[in-house]
Amino acid sequence: MTKVDGQTVIKKYANRRLYNTGTSTYVTLDDLAVMVKDGDDFVVIDAKSGEDITHSVLTQIIFEQESKTGNTLLPVSFLRQLITYYGDQMQMLVPSYLEHSMSAFGAQQEQMREQITKAFGETPITRNMQAPMQMVEEQVRRNTEMFQQAMQMFSPFAKTAGNTPASGTKSKSGNQDIQDLKDQLRSLQEKLDSLGD
User: Fold this and answer.
1) Residues 62 and 83 grouped into a single domain
2) Where is the PHB accumulation regulatory domain (predicted)?
3) Half-sphere exposure at residue 30, Cβ-oriented, CA atoms within 13 angstroms
4) Distant-in-sequence contacts of 64-71, Cβ < 8 A, 24+ apart
5) Which residues form the domain of 57?
6) Which of 42, 144, 154, 160 is most deeply packed, by most CB within 10 A?
7) Is this model's pTM higher than 0.85 or not?
8) In this structure, are 37 and 80 located in the same domain?
């Protein structure tokens, strides 16, 4: 069996080796990361039990990418917030919200690339990153507002006078997230500039 409903089957054996049944070769987590980036659809099956372990393998890929590159996509504040939802009544809403947000962000990537190309020409590596940073900040702000509105709809009594956070707390956290994003983009621009030299 090489494909299930259009998905390539990857078998994981007890010795932790991964076998791509589509190409009849052993693969690594890095190979699977490349497959994801290329848009290849696959499912990872435990060879002994037949259990679908795709979720845990993809999580492992993210962990390795985060630790090996030093450039993290998941800020500590996001990870902390995500952990608080485990076991919470809102836990069932988080996956669909994150999936929707990432789909929307992915759809807007192409639009952002077109805008950057129009604004800065074909070589954005040597150009100012201010406009792309503003576009990303705006998207983050809209997603955050949408998530907060959704949370308020499902827990209208959560904000009472006694447990409302101070008005500056939310904006400080939001400003810090935006500043972190700016710093990451600035660092990326510096790396790109050094490549252009």
Assistant:
1) no
2) 74-113
3) 2
4) 64/29, 64/30, 65/33, 71/184, 71/188
5) 3-69
6) 42
7) no
8) no
